[in-house]
Design goal:
The complex is a heterodimer of chains A (822) and B (124). Chain A has 4 domains: 215 residues; 107 residues, PAS domain (Beta-Lactamase); 161 residues, Reverse transcriptase/Diguanylate cyclase domain (Alpha-Beta Plaits, 2-Layer Sandwich); 261 residues, TIM Barrel (Alpha-Beta Barrel), CATH 3.20.20. Chain A is built from 25 helices and 21 strands. By secondary structure, chain A is an alpha/beta fold. The two termini of chain A are 129 Å apart. Chain B is an alpha/beta fold and 124 residues long. Chain B has one domain: 3-Layer(aba) Sandwich (D-Maltodextrin-Binding Protein, domain 2), CATH 3.40.190. Chain B has a 3-stranded parallel sheet. Chain B is globular and about 40 Å long. The chains are: A alpha/beta (822), B alpha/beta (124).
């Protein structure tokens, strides 16, 4: 680029020099030619001037002679004075000088000049002669004049001088013409060269300028590029500065807003700046505390100091991106407060930390809240005991230890207080809660240090006995527990006796999960309850087999749900006043591949516990509604026949239960009033608030509500008054005792009477004898169901029943198990 | 040439005509001052001009017409006669009685000197 530029500039310079030289040559040549022409012209003009002078002098001499010979002399001319003669001679000499002068001028000697010169010499001789003759021989003088001087003078003045003058004028004109021609030519040549030079110079200048423009453009481009880069750098720097400033401002504001203290530790000088706020956080004034790091570290809790020093050391060594540590700091009053210190190190060129600066935030309150949250997460709020999560965690630790050590054993006690609900119902939840707290305290006093007592909720407790050698030791502690619990509790003046059913699982390395241990303890506890409560049972081989059976049942049930291996049977509900079937209760049956049809009491509980009841319940509802719609279509009646469907506890807790039922009615086309949902009294009582809300929504849909198994749940009719119930179904246990146990009749009568007073209809379940039926009719009980009337029917049986269109009394006994009274 | 009209004669003596032909110039010879012929010249040819006017005329004419050949004034009759005879193309005003031999006398307006009506007749 540089070489190319130099070559181009050198070429342009040479071209300019060549044309300047040519131009100069032309100029010199033209100047010389002009000078020659000018010299010639000047000589001609000078000669002309001299000729003019000669002519003038000749004429003067001629006049003098003429005057002398004629006019001026009034008389015949006398002799001429010597002075006049001398003057005349001088005059002639001047003429001669002028002639000589003319001849001395370059180009003066020409034929015309020579002719003049010859004539002049003759005239001068003639004049001298005539002049000399005046006064001596006038005749001769006049004759000389007339015959020689005058003709010569006339010839010179009228012919020779004009001819000479014309010749000189011509020469001057020629010289002038030549000068003009030379001037024109030189001008033209100069103009030509000027034009050419201008053209060349212009071309060169154009090329040079273009080259310079290119160079300039290139430079401008580079300048622009560099300027742009600089602008970008400046903008980037400004942006970074702005961001840094904003960051600093934000940090300052954040620190100010967060009431953080600031610290800055100069590692080289080992000096530390502590902001006024930093000091204030610990109760110190601005002027207090020196600039030594000691002021900080000596106030750190001894337990927290190593961790703090390790964190600072790690960050200073460059092993962490930033420093952050929580520790306790002693304030001026001597109390410890939790502080969060954060910071970052600045390093020198060798990567060594020279300074660490950061903030300090008081996190005491947060720590308290965290501690509380942590505690709450693993403890029961009411009793302060460990909750299920913490218990399982510790149980897991024990299990792990048992797997490591052959001689390590542990035991889990599962406690469920017997009929604790009675305390709540009779004395209120407040007393119930206090009883639970008191029980918890008693339990804690019975166990050893290191054992864990937990409350799982309600009246369920669990105890982890760690490191026990023999089952006997466990039973010994259990007995102590039972004895301790047997002592009455005194709460608000009430003397309360509580007992617990306790299940024991002896922990060995054979367990895989903590939940398995707990499950076995739970099973043992149920065994204890089943065997009469207020006792303890140890999980043994029989329970183990039971558990295996149950596990198998669960597995089969899950598969049944997947395979939809369920069917429905329908037990007619008969109107005692009309003697006809008004409704059917849908009863689910499990078609087990081995055991055949399995009744609900053998799998519903497992289904409840495993949650499988939810898909089963949905299917039952859908299937029952679909069949009812078919029956209503095929066997219309007035009023239309209804269907009763049972809802389990677990179903009641479903958030979308109302939507499920609504969509089921919509899909099947069953009128809402033809669907009656049976809910057990205990299910309602267990979830009072949720049940009340649910029943109100169902009622709004127009669905009928039945309280199932009424009388078994320790509730009162008055408590049911708050629910939108339509029908009570008296539990079969009351019906079964009618006629044989006198008080049962009265109980049923009272229930029926009270129900009627609350505008509720009554269904008697499990009617099996004619006596029962007669009594119920006598009590004006509206409906009945039971083997006496009809067993549960399959679909064909239902259709046959409906097709007969006969009152139930005409219906033949199903499978020969129910009699038909007249 | 044998005859001239008076106006032509005047043109010659007043310098308006200076040659007889291309080859022959006219040389005018005037009588001397104070002579009767001079008077005839001033009165008849110069039409009553004085000597001073005659002199002024020729000075003016000399400077206005360039360099005319002025009349040459004769001091005596004899000089004029000899010069007329000696100078080719010369013309002179002389007494008719003193015309030398060999000189042609021109008629003026067709009149010979002495004839009635001759224009250059003296007043005596």
């Amino acid at each position: 680029m540089k070489i190319s530029m130099q070559k181009r500039l050198l070429g342009a310079l040479l071209a300019i020099l060549v044309f300047l030289s040519l131009n100069l040559g032309v100029h010199i040549w033209g100047d010389r030619a002009r000078t020659e022409s000018l010299t010639e012209l000047r000589s001609g003009i000078e000669r002309q001037l001299v000729i003019g002078s000669i002519e003038r002098r000749l004429r003067e001499a001629n006049r003098e002679i003429a005057l002398l010979a004629g006019v001026l002399s009034g008389e015949e001319p006398g002799p001429v004075s010597p002075d006049a003669r001398q003057a005349f001679e001088a005059r002639l000499e001047r003429i001669g000088d002028a002639v000589s002068q003319e001849r001395a001028i370059p180009g003066g000697s020409t034929p015309a000049a020579e002719r003049f010169l010859a004539a002049w010499r003759n005239l001068a001789v003639s004049w001298r002669r005539a002049y000399g003759s005046f006064g001596v021989d006038n005749e001769r003088a006049i004759a000389e004049l007339s015959m020689r001087s005058d003709p010569l003078s006339g010839t010179i003045l009228n012919r020779l001088l004009p001819a000479w003058e014309r010749e000189e004028r011509r020469r001057v004109q020629t010289a002038g013409t030549k000068l003009r021609r030379v001037s024109d030519l030189t001008d033209q040549v100069e103009m030509l060269f000027f034009v050419l030079s201008t053209l060349v110079v212009t071309l060169v200048a154009f090329n040079v300028s273009r080259f310079l423009v290119d160079v300039n453009k290139n430079l401008e481009g580079r300048v622009r590029e560099r300027t742009r880069e600089l602008e970008e750098e400046v903008q980037e720097r400004r942006r970074v500065e702005g961001a840094l400033r904003q960051s600093e401002e934000r940090y300052a504001l954040a620190a100010q807003g967060a009431s953080d203290g600031l610290w800055d530790w100069d590692l080289n000088e080992n000096e530390m700046y502590l902001s006024p706020r930093w000091k204030e956080m610990l109760g110190f004034g601005e002027a207090e505390l020196s600039g030594s790091p000691h002021e900080w570290f000596e106030r750190v809790h001894p337990d927290d100091l190593p961790k703090l020093q390790e964190a600072l050391g790690t960050h200073s060594a460059g092993s962490s991106s930033h420093f952050e540590n929580e520790h306790r700091m002693r304030d001026r009053a001597g109390s410890y407060r939790w502080m969060l210190a954060r910071g970052i190190a600045l390093c020198d060129g060798k990567g060594r930390a020279t300074r660490i600066a950061g903030s300090q935030t008081d996190v005491t309150e947060r720590k308290k809240v965290e501690g509380q949250l942590l505690h709450d997460a693993f403890h029961d709020a009411l009793s302060g005991l460990a909750n299920r999560a913490l218990f399982l965690d510790r149980l897991g630790l024990s299990l792990a230890r048992a797997k490591r050590r052959q001689d390590f054993h542990f035991a889990v006690l599962f406690l469920d207080f017997d009929r604790f609900k009675l305390i709540n119902d009779s004395l209120g939840h407040l007393v119930g809660d206090r009883a639970l707290v008191a029980v918890a305290q008693r339990l804690e006093t019975c166990v050893r240090a290191g054992d864990t007592v937990a409350r799982f909720g309600g009246d369920e407790f669990a105890i982890l006995l760690d490191d026990v050698q023999h089952l006997e030791d466990v039973e010994k502690i259990t007995r102590q527990l039972e004895e301790r619990l047997a002592a009455p509790l005194c709460l608000d003046g009430h003397e309360i006796y509580v007992s617990a059913s306790i299940g024991i699982a002896f922990g060995t390395a054979g367990y895989e999960k903590p939940e398995d241990v707990l499950r076995d303890a739970d099973a043992a506890m149920y065994r204890a309850k089943a065997l009469g409560r207020a006792r303890h049972e140890v999980f043994d081989e029989a329970l183990h087999l039971e558990a295996i059976d149950r596990l198998k049942l669960e597995t089969d049930l899950r598969r049944a749900v997947q395979d939809r291996s369920f069917g429905l049977q329908y037990q007619p509900i008969v109107s005692l006043a009309e003697g006809r079937v008004t409704a059917f209760e849908a009863l689910v049956r499990w078609r087990h591949p081995v055991w055949g049809l399995v009744p609900p009491d053998q799998f519903i509980q497992v289904a409840e516990e495993t949650g499988l009841i939810l898909p089963i319940g949905r299917w039952v509802l859908s299937e029952a509604c679909a069949k009812l719609k078919e029956w209503q279509r095929d066997y219309p009646s007035d009023p239309a026949i209804s269907i009763n469907v049972n809802l389990s506890r677990r179903q009641l807790l479903q958030a979308d239960l109302v939507e499920q039922i609504g969509s089921c009615l919509e899909d099947s086309g069953v009128p809402p009033e033809c669907l009656r949902l049976e809910i057990t009294e205990s299910a309602i009582l267990e979830n009072l608030d949720a049940a009340a809300e649910l029943l109100r929504h169902l009622k709004l849909l127009g669905i009928g509500i039945c309280i199932d198994d009424f009388g078994t749940g320790y509730s009162s009719l008055s408590s049911l008054q708050q629910f939108p119930v339509d029908i009570l179904k008296i539990d079969r246990s009351f019906i079964r005792g009618m006629g044989t146990e006198g008080d049962r009749d009265e109980i049923v009568r009272a229930v029926v009477g009270l129900a009627h007073s609350l505008h509720l209809e009554v269904v008697a379940e499990g009617v099996e004898t004619e006596g029962q039926l007669a009594c119920l009719k006598a009590m004006s009980c509206e409906y009945a169901q039971g083997y006496l009337l009809c067993r549960a029917l399959d679909l064909e049986g239902v259709e046959r029943l409906l097709a007969s269109a006969a009152p139930w009394s005409c219906f033949p006994p199903e499978r020969g198990e129910a009699s038909v009274p007249a | 040439m044998d005859e001239l009209s008076l106006p032509e004669l005047r043109r010659i003596f007043l310098g308006s005509r200076q040659s007889w032909s291309e080859e022959l110039a006219i040389t005018v010879l005037t009588p001397a001052r104070g002579s009767p012929e001079r008077q005839v010249l001033l009165n008849k040819i110069y039409e009553q001009r004085s000597e001073v006017q005659y002199k002024q005329y020729w000075i003016n004419k000399m400077f206005s017409d360039g360099a005319p050949v002025l009349p040459k004034s004769m001091g005596s009759h004899g000089l004029s006669a000899s010069l007329v005879r000696g100078i080719p193309g010369a013309i002179a005003l002389v007494d008719s009685n003193k015309v030398p031999p060999g000189v042609k006398v021109l008629r003026i307006d067709g009149k010979q000197p002495g004839e009635a009506g001759y224009p250059l007749m003296t007043s005596r």
